[in-house]
Amino acid sequence: MSAHTRMPSVLPDTMRVLERGWLSSNNILFLGREQTALVDSGYLTHAPQTLALVAHGLQGRPLDRLVNTHLHSDHCGGNAALQQAYGCRTTIPAAEADKVSAWDENVLTYAATGQQCARFRFDDTLQSGDVLTLGDREWQALAAPGHDPHSLIFYCAEERLLISADALWQNGFGVIFPELEGESGFAETRATLELIASLDVGLVIPGHGAPFTEVSKALDTAFARVDYLAADPVRNAQNAVKVLLKFLLLERQRIPLADVSQLLLDIRFFSMANERYLRQPAEQLAQWTVEQLVRAGAAEVVGEVLLNRD
User: Fold this and answer.
1) Fold of 233-308
2) Which of 77, 93, 101, 293 could form a disulfide with 298 if both were Cys (CB 3.0 to 4.6 A apart)?
3) Residue 3's pLDDT band (boundaries 50, 70, 90)?
């Protein structure tokens, strides 16, 4: 992309990126002249920290608006707490409206992943092509299916900024969940990356990790990653199982080894990945997943307990 030969974008004075560690997504705070806003709200158990960070960033102002890129638990788990604290207008992807209204935790994936999210309300919705004002700039909402079929990303052409959620990280992207359910996800992930490549972007603000300017390099990495996963869908399933167990471990910090296989049986995304792709007895899959996390330095086994390692 020729855009990357120009000076990279920097954040306007009206924006603050609250870079979070797992379990939470990053939060992007906007301090407009007439309206404040926050994009994404982190995980439920981090809600007190989210409230503190947002209050500090607002410097005494109210939070007027809350916008979600998508409704995975690490991006909207602080919604309820922020609504209670500020009564903020809340905007979600249009395709998720009925699910939130009915609050079906299976359809919303919270039960399916073994994760938590307190029930929240919404006031309005966004869909691809809509334009919203955040921090006194215009941002276009763009569909970004793949990781999540209903995810949106936000693009500010004036500042050459992209809020990419989990569609593009500096070293990849989020788990391609639709493929675990037997639905198309690899093609959509590739199409989303092609959309991002067509934009004039100087700075990407990802859902996880620090903002980055090496957009072409990140895209090359992501294209290679989706090609690798699509060549053998078992790889995506294996990655999903590891990521989901690591998420549970981050939340709980310790899991008895004897409980791991039952977790894999009880949580729908684990069982779907296993039934469709991995086809291993639960005990065998549990042992493999634990070994993979230990080998990666993401966990350790002490006695009969699996412990989190950061």
Assistant:
1) Arc Repressor Mutant, subunit A (1.10.10)
2) 293
3) very low
Residue 258: C-alpha distances to residues 114, 261, 262, 308 (Å): 17, 7, 8, 16
Q: Mind listing the pLDDT tens digit for each residue in 52-89?
A: 999 999 999 999 999 999 999 999 999 999 999 999 99
pTM of the model: 0.95
Q: How far apart are CA 297 and CA 293, in angstroms?
A: 6
Residues facing residue 31 across a β-bridge = 36
Residue type, 144: A
Q: Which amino acid is at 262?
A: Q
Query: Tell me: domain 2-231, CATH 3.60.15.10, correct?
Result: yes
Taking a C-beta distance cutoff of 8 angstroms, is the pair 188, 198 a contact? no
pLDDT in tens, 99-142: 999 998 988 999 889 999 999 999 999 999 999 999 999 999 99
